[in-house]
Fold:
Amino acid sequence: MAGKDRYAVFGCPIKHSKSPRIHQLFAEQTQQSLEYTAQEVPAERFRESVTGFFSRGGKGLNCTLPLKELAWAFADLTTKRAELSRAVNTLVIQDDDRILGDNTDGCGLITDLKVNHGISLKNSRILILGAGGACRGILAPILENSPHHLILANRTRQRASDLAAEFCILGDIEACDFADLKGQQFDLIINATSASLNDQLPPLADDLLAREGVCYDLAYGNKPTSFVRWGMDNNAKKSLDGLGMLVEQAAEAFFLWRGIRPQTKPVIDVLHSARRFVSGV
Ligand code: ATR
Structure:
């Protein structure tokens, strides 16, 4: 008798991952018979763990920190968006046994902003804080949405300049450090630094956010992140964390694996009520 199709998320640490819950809810909602587990896999065991998972019949994987670049290098073939971000969060085994790598993070962010929160990126003045892997993953989809202008600010200015130079073929990006932001205002500020994870904040002037401006932290937690709190303190129209993006990127992975698009709102609502606060409203 054939068992359930098996999926998993690999990462390190992985204990607090919400992905098993999200995919279980998607599966129930769409009546798909599947199993999704979380497995702690350190970088040095990535290759053997992925190979073992697929050779034992696993159908698809999510990869999270610190494995996304390794997954990109591992995949036999990659989508264009994975290639641009040089990171893969979703692996799927194809009929010919080759492993396809995709990156659904950027698309998850855009869906959360536009569909769930009604935030238009077109003609907006957008600031991204940070120039690491998280920023790289969202640059292309943001530029595709025709912002008025896009500024990349990073503590280490050179990293921002390097990313801007690499992506300039897709649209105009200006690189700077935080001090250079003096006097400027933005309709949307996205925090792609890892500062929130340590309850820290880049040095941001109080007048950086335009009236009716929106703040979005790619990170999320069981309480509002330091950047979400900064947005609230600075009268953001909405100050959101990355929980919606997490569910949306998962929905896109689910679609890649199962060919069915689950509804995300009921799942976002369940996760919001589990942590007893709704960011940004
Ligand atoms: P990744 O693996 O995602 O690339 P990373 O290289 O550690 O992670 O990048 C994290 C990002 O957060 C970088 O932009 C980093 O700034 P630097 O390039 O100057 O290191 C930024 N970052 C981390 N902690 C920060 C803090 N306390 N203030 C401002 N920026 C911070």
About this structure: The chain has a mean pLDDT of 96. Residues 243-258 form the longest helix (16 residues). Residues 5-103+246-273 form a domain with the Rossmann fold fold (CATH 3.40.50.10860). The chain has two domains: 5-103+246-273, 106-241.
